[in-house]
Amino acid sequence: xxxxxxxxxxxxxxxxxxxxxxxxxxxxxxxxxxxxxxxxxxxxxxxxxxxxxxxxxxxxxxxxxxxxxxxxxxxxxxxxxxxxxxxxxxxxxxxxxxxxxxxxxxxxxxxxxxxxxxxxxxxxxxxxxxxxxx
Length: 134
Fold this sequence. Notes:
Helices cover 37% and strands 27% of the residues.
């Protein structure tokens, strides 16, 4: 489905399919409901929904609304693939803030990756350090 909403294009063919959920009823049932979460190339989220009563439609979502939908409909592992690792409280307490100087182009790339994946810049840096075997 391809739809323009408030001057933005939402296209299920060109966007990244992130996850889906359905209520387990057959798609011929009037109470059938399915939602598919997508992210556009520009980082906008939307839900492509189908139901037995209404048909199909697209609903734009903010980043927070997309996270809320995922919390309600996905398991923890699926959620973290889309939005990054969620730390437990004990892990949060063991952190320390430091100041690091990084080249502007590296920071720009980190922010780009963070925006497209939903991860934080801090998480990406820490993941990269761990993978390099520090």
